[in-house]
Amino acid sequence: MFDTKTVEAFELHYSMLVDEVRTNRFLSAILQMVKPGDVVLDIGSGTGVLACFACLAGAKHVYAVEQGAIIGLAKEICARNGLEDRITFYNDWSTHIELPEAANVLVTETIGNIGFEEGMLHWVLDAKGRLLSDNARIIPRTLEMFAVPIESEEDYHRVGNWDNYYYTFDFSPLHTLASSNLLWMDLMPEMFLSEPASLLFTDLTQVEDDDFSAEASYVVKRKGTVHGFGGWFTAELTPTVRLSNVPPSKTPSWSHTFMPLEWPLAVKTGDRLQLKIYTTHNAAQWQWQVTHVARTAGDRDGPSILLPEQTTKFGQLVGFGSMQALSSTPTRNMDGEIALFILQRINGALSIAEIAQQVEEQFPESFDSYEKLLEHINKLVRIYSRDGNSPRKRA
Questions:
Q1: Which pLDDT belongs to residue 392?
Q2: Residues 6+ apart with CB under 8 A from 205
Q3: Residues 91, 97: contact at Cβ < 8 Å?
Q4: Which of 233, 62, 38, 34 has the alpha carbon at shortest distance from 139?
Q5: CB-CB contact of 138 with 204 (8 Å)
Q6: Which superfamily does CATH assign the domain made up of 5-109 to?
Q7: Which residues touch 266 (CB under 8 Å, ≥6 apart)?
């Protein structure tokens, strides 16, 4: 089957590169914050453009971290522009690496449509603890998340009308899954049912936790139907450079986030809504819940109604079929046997070369080349050995 991941990766990185607002704001921030002789850490480097900007600003050396396959092209771009001696690339998660020296500037463009869903808090928190010098400069300096109740039947239709019967069959089990995801949309102010509110403001130089809870209250300004909440971010890259996808967005490489309600909610002017959000597992799992207080004819608050909590935990297909049953009794396959064989020999007594020799003898047909074997061993060493800088906390 044709793998579309390469095409999707090219489209993603090209859209970011040609987003002039996004890229020029980061260029301006880097030129302001990076000084000659600085050591820069670039987390989520992508095509390496921000690492190149840091060199342009005078950085002595840049450590560019990118876990995706795009890093191969980033290295070529770096070499084509004569910067290969000043940029070191790591094809890994930043939580899995060690640097030969502390960086005094961190640049990361791991900003999602609502700011936090790409795990920025975790990357920054880990880097501050292990990879940065004291009082390191961080770009962006702050990140703020906004949300607003919206009316958009068109976007809600993407959740699907699964409570209907199709071809005489009941497909309603799909409704909870479909409505338990963060979706993408293009917000417009005319969709707003109240004034937007700030949910969370974070000073990244002071961040202490990578999970968060946030809440905001809203007063409905017109009669309508709440289909969910739309969200966006504002980032302060430097005291004078800001970047935002506030609607209507001028940054085409970002969309907005749509948190649908499980079922649409009719509201009228004066009703009050409260939105609570929680994230866990480095922003991989999101929960949101809405409280509705209707305004009565006597201009008083009616009863407070707590809508069902929604969570992305129930929005993944893995929970419905791909995950093995708890009663299953799994058996290692050949890849598992090889990994176990290697891990048993990461014991402080054998060198990489000695481990490789034993793996070749035990599994002679398992690797296309000696280089592939070494690459596999080094990956396990990097993750699971003390000398290989094993991460203290999983991303």
A1: 41
A2: 138, 141
A3: no
A4: 34
A5: yes
A6: Vaccinia Virus protein VP39 (3.40.50.150)
A7: 224, 225, 226
- The model's pLDDT over 62-116, given as tens digits with 9 standing for 90+, comes to 999 999 889 999 999 999 999 999 999 999 999 999 999 999 999 999 999 999 9
What sign has the CA pseudo-torsion 172, 175, 178, 180? negative
Q: What tens digit of pLDDT does each residue of 129-145 get?
A: 999 999 999 999 999 99
Contacts 24+ apart (CB under 8 A), 157-164: 158/183, 159/183, 159/260
- In the predicted structure, residue 320 carries a pLDDT above the cut 60: no
Phi/psi of residue 175, nearest 5 degrees: -65, -45
Q: How far apart are CA 227 and CA 225, in angstroms?
A: 6
Q: Tell me the Ramachandran region of residue 145: left when phi exceeds 0, alpha when psi lies from -120 to 50, beta otherwise.
A: beta
Instruction: Tell me if 225 sits within 8 A of 151, measured CB to CB.
Output: yes
Residue 21 corresponds to which tokens in the numbers above?
């607002």
Q: Which residues are within 8 A (CB) of 181 and not within 5 positions of it... i.e. 6 or more apart? A: 260, 312, 315
User: E strand or H helix at 30, and its extent?
Assistant: helix 20-33
The predicted-structure confidence for 230-247, as pLDDT tens digits, reads as follows 999 999 999 999 999 999
Give the E-state strand segments of the chain in sequence order: 39-43, 61-65, 87-90, 103-108, 132-139, 142-150, 165-166, 169-170, 183-185, 197-203, 213-219, 224-238, 241-244, 256-267, 272-280, 285-295, 301-306, 310-311
Residue appearing with tokens 């109604």: 305
Q: Which structure tokens are listed for 279? A: 């994230």
Domain residue spans in the chain?
Answer: 5-109, 143-319, 337-384
| Tokens found for residue 262 | 């499980």
pLDDT in tens, 45-59: 999 999 999 999 999
228 bridge partner residues: 150, 260
**CATH number 2.70.160.11 is the correct assignment for the domain at 143-319:** yes
Question: What phi, psi does 281 have (nearest 5°)?
Answer: 55, 50
Compute the distance between CA of residue 161 and CA of residue 75 in angstroms, rounded to an integer. 47
Q: Is the bond preceding residue 189 a cis peptide, omega within 30 degrees? A: no
Q: 150-203: per-residue pLDDT in tens? A: 999 999 988 877 777 788 888 887 888 889 999 999 999 999 999 999 999 999
Label residue 394 left, alpha or beta by phi (over 0 means left) and psi (-120 to 50 means alpha): beta
Residues in the chain: 395
- Alpha carbon 386 to its chain centroid, in Å, reads 27
Q: Write the DSSP symbol of residue 309.
A: P
